[in-house]
Amino acid sequence: MAKIIKTGEVKSTSEKLTNFFIHISFIIICAVCLCSFLLIVGSSLKTQQDIMNFGYSIIPQHFSLEAYKMILKNPEMLLNSYVVTIITTVIGSAAGVWIVASFAYVVSRKTYRYKTVLSFYVFFTMLFNGGLVPSYILIVKWLGLKDNILALILPMLVNAWYVLIMKGFFQSIPESLIESAKIDGASEMYTFVKIVIPISKPAIASIALFYVLGYWNDWWLSLIYIESDNLMKLQYMLIKILKNIEYLNSVEAMKMGMVKAGTEAPTLSARMAMCVLAAGPVLVIFPFFQKYFVKGITVGAVKG
C-alpha cells in the first residue's frame, strides 16, 4: 500500500510539472503575440523621425497622431471601404454558415443514400480545384459579376474544410434525438432548425469566426474582379496604400493637403496605423466567439 501511494504521488508531481511547462509555454506565446500587436500600435503613434532614429518600439519617444490624421484627411474612401468590407463579411458569413451547416447535416445522416459520394466530392475539392482561369471565366463571363459586389461574396461562400468540421460535429449528436423528433411528427427542416442548430452553437460559432476572418482579410477577390473604387475592400485599399506609400511624399500629395509643404509624410508610422485600422474590429469581435471556439473545433476534429 505504501508503494502505491508513493507511485500516485510521483504521478501527481509529474502531472503538475507537465501542466506548469504547458502553461509557461502558452504564456510566452501569448506574450510574444501581445508584444507584436503593441509594437504595431506604439509605432503608429510615433513620429517619422523617431522611427528613423530609434526604430520601432512599443512606447513612442514622442507621441504623435500624424499618421492617423494623414490617413483620415480624406476619410471618404476609408469609410466606403469599411462599409463594403462589413457588408460582404456579414452577408457572406451568414450565407456561408447556413449553406455549410445545411450541407454538412445532410451528409452526416446515416440514412442518407448519397452521403458517401457527396462526402468524397467535398474532400476531392480540397485536393484539386479548377484554378484561377476557370474561376475568372465563371465569375466574369458566365455570371457577369465583373465589378459587382457579389464577386466578393460568392467565391468564398462554401469551404470544403468547414463542411467536414460541421459534419464531424453533427455526427456527435445522438441519432436517437433526431429519431424521437421524427416520431413526434417533426419535418426534416423543423428538426434541423429547432433541434440541431440550437445544440450546435459551438461548431456554428467556430465556422462563423472562420468566415468573418476570411471575408474581412480578403483582398484577392478585389484585385481580380473589382475595378471601381466604390467597391474596394479595406484590405485591398491597405495594400494599394502600402505599395504606393512613396506617393505620399510627392508634390501632388502636398497640393492635395495630405502633407504640409516642407515636411515629410509619416510613411513608416502610416503603415502601422493602417494595420491597426484594419485589424481593430476583428479583435473586438473575437472575444464573443472565444467560449465556443475551442469546443467546436475539438469536437469536429475528433469526430471528423
Strand proportion: under 5%
Q: How are helices and strands ordered from N to C?
A: HHHHHHHHHHHHHH
Q: Characterize the overall form.
A: globular
Major pleated sheet: none
What's the alpha carbon Rg, rounded to whole Å?
25 Å
Assembly classification? single chain
Distance between the termini: 43 Å
Overall SS class = mainly alpha
User: Approximately how much helix is present in the residues?
Assistant: over 70%
| Overall structural domain count | 2
Strand runs, count:
0
CATH class of the largest domain: Mainly Alpha
Describe this structure in words.
With 304 residues, this protein is an all-alpha fold. The chain folds into two domains: 2-73 and 244-303, no CATH class; 76-225, MetI-like fold, CATH 1.10.3720. The protein is built from 14 helices and no strands. It has helices at 2-44, 48-54, 66-71, 76-108, 115-127, 132-142, 160-171, 175-183, 188-196, 201-217, 220-225, 234-243, 251-255, 267-303. The longest helix has 43 residues, at 2-44. Mean pLDDT is 80; it is low at 1-10 and 300-304.
Notable traits:
304 residues, mainly alpha, MetI-like fold, 2 domains, 14 helices, globular
Provide a concise account of the structure shown.
Helices cover 72% and strands 0% of the residues. The chain is mostly helical and 304 residues long. Helix 4 (76-108) packs across helix 7, helix 4 packs antiparallel against helix 10 and helix 5 packs antiparallel against helix 7 (160-171).
How is the topology of this model organized?
Elements: H1 2-44, H2 48-54, H3 66-71, H4 76-108, H5 115-127, H6 132-142, H7 160-171, H8 175-183, H9 188-196, H10 201-217, H11 220-225, H12 234-243, H13 251-255, H14 267-303
